[in-house]
């Protein structure tokens, strides 16, 4: 049995929860609310030494890092769904997953952190709205919006791990009032993601509503 340590409050933990739902994989879900210090439990740190969610246990396998976990779910128990046999397409999926971890998430984090911390109840209301025009984030928003023009999904017009990985951080977009009107292709893709049963099943308050943190 696959054991996933996660909380749907976390954008990174939502990725494997949604992928497992989409692939109809049975999960033994251990809820670890890292925002209330539950990640510090020694039993959990034996699986996830950095005390972060998500983490997966499957037999002898211990995995942390959300994108590695979803890759394992798809290629292992998922039987190759949400990925591809074609090396070029698999590399394209990996490209978006690496981009997500090395650019998208790091540039979104400073913009979202104060609002998300407030939504989690661990910080006071931020004094200003999210700075969606931050210089370091702008090229990545433009890249994603340009790439999605005329496409339904990120790779080869089929839903893949790339979409679940990149969608992770968009969990917070409604709450942090992302300017969807300024990025129409990104907005249309986000609406397609939100319509997926797997995304709906892993939605949680407060992120599914438009927050009013100011
Ligand atoms: N690169 C990691 C990031 C994991 C991560 O930062 N998880 C956050 C929640 S989104 C966490 O557990 N934070 C708790 C902490 O740092 O104490 C991944 O993709 O899994």
What is the fold's blueprint, element by element?
Layout: E1 2-6, H1 11-22, E2 27-31, H2 42-45, E3 55-58, E4 61-64, H3 66-75, H4 87-119, H5 138-148, H6 161-167, H7 184-195, H8 197-201
Helix pairs in contact: 1-3, 1-6, 4-6, 5-7
Give a description of the structure.
By secondary structure, this protein is of the alpha+beta class. The chain folds into two domains: 2-75, Glutaredoxin, CATH 3.40.30; 87-201, Glutathione S-transferase Yfyf (Class Pi), Chain A, domain 2 (Up-down Bundle). It has eight helices and four strands; from the N terminus they run E-H-E-H-E-E-H-H-H-H-H-H. It has helices at 11-22, 42-45, 66-75, 87-119, 138-148, 161-167, 184-195, 197-201, and strands at residues 2-6, 27-31, 55-58, 61-64. A four-stranded mixed beta sheet has the order 2-1-3-4, covered by helices on one side. Helix 1 (11-22) runs parallel beside helix 3 (66-75), helix 1 (11-22) packs antiparallel against helix 6 and helix 5 (138-148) packs across helix 7 (184-195). The longest helix has 33 residues, at 87-119. The termini are far apart. 36% of the residues are buried. Glutathione binds at residues 10-12, 34, 39, 51-54, 65-67, 101.
For the record, the count of structural domains works out to 2
Query: What is the first-to-last residue Cα distance?
Result: 44 Å
Assigned CATH architecture of the largest domain:
Up-down Bundle
SS class: alpha+beta
Can you give me a brief rundown of this structure?
The chain is α+β, with helices and mostly antiparallel strands and 214 residues long.
């Amino acid at each position: 049995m696959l054991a996933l340590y996660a909380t749907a409050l976390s954008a990174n933990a939502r990725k494997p929860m949604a992928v497992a739902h989409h692939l109809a994989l049975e999960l033994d879900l251990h809820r670890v609310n890292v925002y209330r210090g539950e990640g510090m439990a020694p039993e959990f740190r034996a699986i996830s030494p950095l005390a972060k969610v998500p983490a997966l246990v499957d037999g002898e396998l211990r995995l942390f890092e959300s994108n590695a976990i979803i890759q394992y779910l798809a290629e292992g128990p998922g039987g190759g769904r949400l990925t591809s046999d074609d090396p070029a397409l698999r590399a394209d999926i990996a490209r978006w997953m690496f981009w997500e971890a090395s650019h998208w998430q790091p540039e979104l984090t400073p913009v979202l952190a104060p609002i998300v911390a407030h939504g989690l109840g661990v910080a006071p209301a931020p004094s200003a709205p999210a700075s969606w025009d931050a210089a370091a984030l702008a090229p990545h928003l433009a890249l994603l919006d340009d790439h999605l023009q005329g496409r339904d999904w990120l790779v080869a017009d089929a839903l893949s791990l790339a979409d679940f990985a990149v969608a992770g951080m968009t969990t917070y977009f409604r709450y942090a009032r992302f300017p969807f009107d300024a990025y129409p292709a990104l907005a249309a893709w986000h609406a397609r993601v939100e319509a997926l049963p797997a995304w709906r099943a892993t939605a949680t308050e407060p992120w599914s509503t438009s927050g009013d943190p100011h």
